[in-house]
Amino acid sequence: MAYIGPGAGFAFxxxxxxLFVAILLALASVLTFPLRVVxxxxxxxxxxxxxxxxxxxxxxxxxxxxGVATRMMDRGELPALDSLRKHATFARLxxxxxPISPVAWxxxxxxxxxxKHNIFDFLNRDLRSYRPELSSSRVTTTKRKGLLRGxxxxxxxxxxxxxxxxxxxxYGVSSTVLRVPITFPPExxxxxxxxxxxxxxxxxxxxxxxxxxxxxAGDKTAATGGTRIPVAIENRRVRTTLTGPPMGxxxxxxxxxVRFNGTPDSAMLHISGQKIRLKTGVSTDWVRVEFGRGxxxxxxxxxxxxxxVSPEFALYVTPINIDPERPAxxxxxxxxxxxxxxxxxxxxxxxGLAEDTWALSEGAIDEEAFLDQTYAIHRERxxxxxxxxxxxxxxxxxxxxxxxDRIQHMFHGRPDGPPGSPPHGxxxxxxxxxxxxxxxxxGRVLEAIDDETVxxxxxxxxxxxxxxxxxxxxxxxxxxxxxxxxxxxxAEYLAGVDWEKTRAYSFGLSGIYLNVKGRESRGIVVxxxxxxxxxxxIADRLKKLLDPATGKSAIREVYDAATTxxxxxxxxxxxxxxGYEAGYRASWDTAAGKTSSEVFEDNTKAWGGDHCxxxxxxxxxxxxNRQVDLGEGLPDIMxxxxxxxxxxxxxxxxxxxxxxxxxxxxxxxxS
Length: 671
Hints:
Residues 415-427 have low confidence and may be disordered. This protein is α+β, with helices and mostly antiparallel strands. A hairpin with a 2-residue loop joins strand 10 (221-223) and strand 11.
């Protein structure tokens, strides 16, 4: 996903402090191991069912599309997945409403609908200020008083309901969970976890690149997802700074210097006491950069890519990731697990949205550099996953891979081409290549597991093209549901809305919210009858809406949250969920809560593929190495959690919405 909006925030805890605490926890873990074993045997819950498997291995391939997979299997290009299809199980997988990664993966982990896990989009709204905020987590700092005076940091998870690995832990079953989305902050359970999507970068954002350019002097300029900084070349060198984590009213930074040696394709980078040779078009390895000093020192890692030396200088810097060896915030459970992985495998990407889609979309890097970056991150995750498969002989071993999602977003179709134009690369080469690599990954997993292991391969959604964006707030204003203050049409984060005259508004990728009195701070919609009538009116008009440029319907369905969701958190989400037709999506302005004037606009960004449409259009995939009784209809992403519990001898909890998928033995032919 190319996320637009606020980040979780960042709290300056200090790498040394976190590392010190992690070492103490590791030492305590070793010393108390005998006691913990005895306690686990005495107090763990007794499994009520009989285990159907010794181990469950789960491979998540974010965004793997069943249509693309089927075409490539039919051509014999995905032998491992085709073997599962022919001899075991392959099906389309129902996804969530809306089919957005944080929503879908939360339902995967908990087995419940959004009304019970509280994640409805990347964004939620502050009911007092109407400003959008990250839906999954928030980092806050308050001041302590008394003897322990000083800053106190809290990292709040907003996802509710228990994950299946937490429930398994209560019955003494351990799990290793790698990079599953919406696992930040990491929860405590019996096992190990490395957090995934929504882990912030060191600046507290969901990923902010930096691009230094020798263009005419001026102030630094914001780019979506990053910052462009003008620099001057003097005496064959560039002197500037790299901005790091927030501190007080400002931010910490470190000096950065690039020295030129007279060659047209190389330079020397000086940063944090290191000298690093740069070569045009070649990314560096991870570079550790330290901000602050003493106990208030914090460490991050980033990569540098020299785009050009002359005639114009350009240096790209990835978002500054939290250093896994010296994490400044908890990104794993136990806290020392990230450090252990870094010591074992070397530094690795920790940012939740690590593949820099915005840098490609904004022209800070080219397609080749983006693919190199994406596959480097993919290889890091593969190494961790296969090491975990070797070490985890019982319980659950689960890892989600993101390359399939990111590459399809950026290579699905050129936004300036006509409908039906080929993907980037002319023949979809980049997309087909990531499918082949994913198939090879599954093949190696099949070789690494035994007959007592059940394997699930799944995706959270599929993909379609994204050609036209709908500015939902512009439409709401046009229809009289939303009113702007004078001269405030293009204000960001809903700042231009006249709330005393507004009945409905939108932000994020699919939701419409009513301005309800007693819920929103300046609400004007009163009573259940007015709410029902207003929702029906908006839905009816939306479903009749045609795009004047194409003459086509932009909306497939509009869902009423009151009947779509159920559970204690149902009212925290949108009141209506818009299911777009293929080719359409909420516009970039709508996603950020901006109030543009035109209802429809072309998608002019490199981001040419998407899945934030009607859920029926973009099902995910479901593979298993055993034959699964699917019954009537498609399996649902909520079914995975209760199925994993059942396979490992734990009864499905009454609160789970998903059903148990019954598996039986099957014999796979070698692929």
